[in-house]
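Readers of this paper often ask what the protein records in our data store actually look like. Such a record has a labelled line for the sequence and another for the backbone structure tokens. The tokens are whole numbers drawn from a learned vocabulary of local backbone shapes. We quote a single record here, exactly as it is kept in our systems:
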Amino acid sequence: MASLSNMEMAAAVAANKNIEIKKTFFGLKTQVIYTPTGSPVDCYRKEYAPDAESSLGKMLDNTGEKLAEAAKNVAGIKEVDMGNVRLEAALSRDHQFAALQIVKFTNFNYLPVSEVKFLEGADAAAVATVFK
């Protein structure tokens, strides 16, 4: 599991009104909470080959049933150990909140390809299937 502080979307997630960040254990550990349900938020990174970028983008561009269908397609895409396209996600354990962003390795840095997309409710639960 990844740490929120090491993700490109960290500032956007921290600024979300439904997210609370708690420092614990003398400030050495950070816990991210989705406040409407009180559920902890876990962060994930998945790396893909360059040809997966369009499928990832389609998932972020949709909502509702189209989002669920696109998430199933993305769940079927094979991860690679060192891909240059990365899907970063913050997902609540109850699957009621998700924040997603696509970043791409270019010029020795990961640069955002998409804006951070925040999902709640059924849409968040649909993208949770990608991270099972």
